[in-house]
Specification:
By secondary structure, the chain is of the alpha/beta class. It contains 17 helices and 15 strands. It has helices at about 10-25, 25-40, 55-65, 80-90, 105-115, 130-135, 150-165, 180-200, 215-230, 240-250, 255-260, 280-285, 300-310, 340, 350-370, 380-395, 405-410; strands at about 45-50, 70-75, 95, 120-125, 145-150, 170-175, 210-215, 230-235, 250-255, 265-270, 290, 310-315, 320-325, 330-335, 375-380. Strand 8 (about 230-235), helix 10 and strand 9 form a beta-alpha-beta unit. The structure holds adenine.
């Protein structure tokens, strides 16, 4: 079967890590068991464009168990785990197109191979497959029932498409499920971003100043964990509510050009463009380390650095020093690509368990109900979200209270006030 991976001899090493991750993904494992007997995807082809990690591999196993014919390509050129890609191919029957460090041309070739699969369901992380299909491969739409989207950036792109009337099939925004963004974006990004920075730099975090651009769920998670490691945290925001929240959470809030003077380390998680640009570089502290944990590497104006640096060289893999005209140095990590997946291994399996349970169950929902769905961006049904939360609690051995009939009645009535 056609594929493109780095090295098939890594397959056994990949399988060992995939099975280890699976132990921390009990919700997904229980869905896989049900899929194995019910086969919700019998006769369906799925094209997934996700970070090729051990956690993603366990999602792919779940789709295959459900009877799907699955092709997987990378959703970022630097996030692929080559041993996982090999194992998917050799041990789990998933045609995989992903090589860590692939160039942009290869990245899009891989997406094209996934589209060649003539999917009934697309599964995106960043909306590159949907974007490619609508811009260059519209013939593929004929077969498509619907799609899912994993991340905030992708949902923003898809919502813009839907607003313009350009989106031609229904897509469920997995990112917006409570059991996704409250845990994956916050605790997952919080931990894995610091993990990536530490693995790339081995710098002490305690006592250093971390600037975070963006105080959405990802920014909040990073700030919370960085403060716990003894960092001084500065938040840059454009949204007055989020800025106020950051202030009341105890962080300093200021514009980027001021923050640049203090930053030892700077991480962007905004989903927007050129958040660290020439103005910030002009005042940036000498030796500052900058990185991105948002979906695309365009949050940092890397072309400006490339053009204006008087000297540049690699200090070690994934760490590049740029020398500016006045002699100051700026250290860029992982080419500005997601630091948590480029320099570390992404979010831990415990949180991906819920994110990917959402992926599996919304794909099943599309298989069942897409014929009743017009093109547009949809929320994950509350029943799926709540079911995942309950299954996760169960797997953690945590039990909770239940409303009494009296309490339930009270919450649904308005007559009873001050007593
Ligand atoms: N996004 C963030 N962390 C991830 C992981 N471990 N696997 C797949 N996608 C991710």
């Amino acid at each position: 079967m056609p594929y493109h991976i780095k090295d098939i001899t890594l397959a056994n090493a990949g399988r060992a890590r995939i099975e280890w991750a699976n132990l921390d993904m009990p919700v997904l494992a229980s869905i896989r068991e049900r899929f194995r007997s019910e086969h919700p995807f019998e006769g369906l082809r799925i094209a997934a464009c996700l970070h090729v990690t051990t956690e993603t591999a366990n999602l792919m196993r779940t789709l295959v168990a459900g009877g799907a014919d699955v092709v997987l390509c990378a959703s970022n050129p630097l996030s692929t785990q080559d041993d996982t890609a090999a194992a998917l191919l050799q041990h789990y029957g998933v045609r995989t197109y992903a090589i860590k460090g692939e160039d942009t041309e290869t990245y899009y070739k891989h997406i094209d191979r996934a589209i060649d699969h003539k999917p009934h369901i697309t599964m995106d992380d960043g909306a590159d497959v949907v974007g490619r299909i609508h811009a260059e491969r519209p013939e593929a739409i004929e077969d498509i029932l619907g799609g899912t989207e994993e991340t905030t950036t992708g949902v923003i792109r898809l919502s813009a498409m839907a607003k313009e009337g350009a989106l031609r099939y229904p897509i469920i925004a997995v990112n917006d499920a409570k059991t996704k963004h409250f845990y994956d974006n916050r605790y997952g990004t919080g931990q894995s971003t610091l993990d990536g920075i530490v693995r790339a730099t081995n710098r002490l975090l305690a006592g250093r100043t971390l600037v975070i651009s963006g105080y959405g769920w990802c920014g909040r998670g990073i700030a919370m964990r960085a403060a716990g490691m003894g960092m001084q945290v500065i938040i840059c925001e454009v949204d007055p509510f989020k800025a106020l929240e950051a202030h009341m959470d105890g962080f300093r809030v200021m514009p980027a050009i001021h923050a640049a003077r203090f930053c030892d380390i700077w991480v962007t998680v905004t989903g927007d463009l050129n958040v660290i640009g020439p103005d910030a570089f002009a005042t940036m502290k000498d030796g500052a380390i900058i990185c991105n944990s948002g979906h695309f590497n365009s949050e940092i104006d890397i072309p400006w650095l490339e053009e204006n640096a008087t000297d540049k060289h690699e200090l070690k893999p994934l760490v590049k020093e740029y020398r500016l005209a006045d002699g100051r140095k700026v250290i860029l990590l992982a080419e500005g690509r997601l630091i948590n997946l480029s320099a570390a291994e992404g979010h831990p399996a415990e949180v991906m368990d819920m994110s990917f349970a959402n992926q599996a169950l919304t794909a099943e929902y599309l298989a069942l109900y897409s014929s009743q769905m017009a093109p547009g961006v949809y929320r994950v049904p509350d029943s799926i979200d709540e079911n995942i939360a309950r299954l996760k609690l169960q797997s953690l051995g945590v039990s909770i209270d239940k409303l009494t009939p009296e309490q339930e009645k009270y919450l649904n009535s308005w007559e009873l006030g001050t007593v």
